[in-house]
Amino acid sequence: MRRLALAPFFLVGLLAGVWLVVSPWVVGFSPGAHGGWSASRWSEVLAGAIVVGVSAVALVTTVGLALAAAAPGTEEAARE
Amino acid sequence: MTARTVVALSWSLIIGLVGGWLLLSPWALGEWATGGDWPPVVKAEFFGGVGLVALALSCLLMVTVQVVATLRSSGRPAESPELESTLVAVAQALTADLMAKGSAPGGETGPQPAGRAPLSESRWDGRREDG
């Protein structure tokens, strides 16, 4: 269980990233020049995409390492 | 442990940097330069950044606590049950060996070099005098 202690942080980060991606439409960011995306919208969506990607990689890696260590026959599983 | 620590530290660093950028972006992008109430866009960016920085810092704290706990537990090998039972067995064997030598006729079973006192007489008698 201790191996998954950091997984909730990554899960919250994933949800926060999803919120950052959709927040320009939910909050109602002003459109940019010529009807395109404004700088703040680009900033928010790109930041959200980075947070989602990094959190997903961290979550998959953490859960994968925990499953590999808990698999029967491994040295760490025998230690516990 | 090491891979998890590296993943968590990297995640904390990236999330902290993104959160810091979101905190500063209303001013950096010139969306809110005047006084008065914050518009919803500025609030969303600022508080989103605050939340990400807080998340990164709390994850960093958790990693630090885990690393310190791991280092503390590995620094005390005597708490290992295998090592403790091995040390007890070695101590019992040494005690039995010393008792057997002490009860043997003459105190020693093997030949001794000339001019040298037996182990049971020299070392252990000296200890008794010290104590």
Q: Topology of this structure?
A:
The complex is a heterodimer of chains A (80) and B (131).
Chain A: H1 7-28, H2 39-70, H3 75-79
Helix pairs in contact in A: 1-2
Chain B: H1 2-28, H2 40-74, H3 81-103, H4 119-130
Helix pairs in contact in B: 1-2
Description:
- The complex is a heterodimer of chains A (80) and B (131).
- With 80 residues, chain A is an all-alpha fold.
- Chain A is 74% helix and 0% strand.
- With 131 residues, chain B is mainly alpha-helical.
- Chain B has four helices and no strands.
- In chain B, helix 1 runs antiparallel to helix 2.
- Chain B is rod-shaped, with a radius of gyration of 34 Å.
- Chains A and B meet through helix 1 and helix 2 of A and helix 1 and helix 2 of B.
Enumerate the spans of chain A where pLDDT stays under 50 for 5 or more consecutive residues.
none
Question: Residue-averaged pLDDT of chain B, rounded?
Answer: 80
Distance between the termini of chain A: 11 Å
Derived from helix and strand composition plus strand pairing, the structural class of chain A reads mainly alpha
Question: Percent of residues of chain A in beta strands?
Answer: under 5%
Q: CA-to-CA gap between the ends of chain B? A: 47 Å
Please name the defining characteristics of this protein.
heterodimer, A: 80 residues, mainly alpha, B: 131 residues, 4 helices, rod-shaped, disordered C terminus
Q: Outline of this structure?
A:
Chain A is built from 3 helices and no strands. In chain A, 74% of the residues lie in helices and 0% in strands. By secondary structure, chain A is mostly helical.
